[in-house]
Amino acid sequence: METPVDLIVGLGNPGPKYHLTRHNAGAELVRTLASALNSPLKPESKFFGETTRVTIGGRDVRLLIPSTFMNKSGQAVAAMAKFYQIAPQGILVVHDELDLDPGTARFKLAGGHGGHNGLRDIIKSLGNSAEFARLRLGIGHPGAAALVTDYVLKKPSPDDHELINSSIQKALDYLPPAVDGHWEKAMNGLHRAEAL
pTM (2 decimals)? Predict the structure, then answer.
């Protein structure tokens, strides 16, 4: 069954200190999207984040960037999902992905948290449901588990920053079919765009 998207969430940490760090790639995509659609994000305390409403491919979609720290992302997602009665299947969470190289973006339907604290908290806050879609933005891996925390909280090199930006732009091109629930079309299109 093809489930359309009602809510797109971009994960990151709040404040200037974390702006443009690897862990904030998801938030960066949602900011870029809101800006491209000329719909500024506004703080909304009842949703613990910044939010706006946009139209993508004819569909009404809410955008959300939690203003909590990454490991409390679920608070914002659950508050908005409950208020607007959005099922987990209608949510797309955009996040940084250590297991993909910079410049790579991938859609994924459901799955575990893979050690990502933002995803872990969202799953817990949605009543242990992992049935939401993800858009994974590759940031690369530092090579050892002990280096991960420091790595994700730092800004990428200029070259990697450019690659992450290019993956955000490519992913945005394939958001309309994803939002419509045409996941196969979105996945295949994004995969092919990266192979070019």
Answer: 0.95
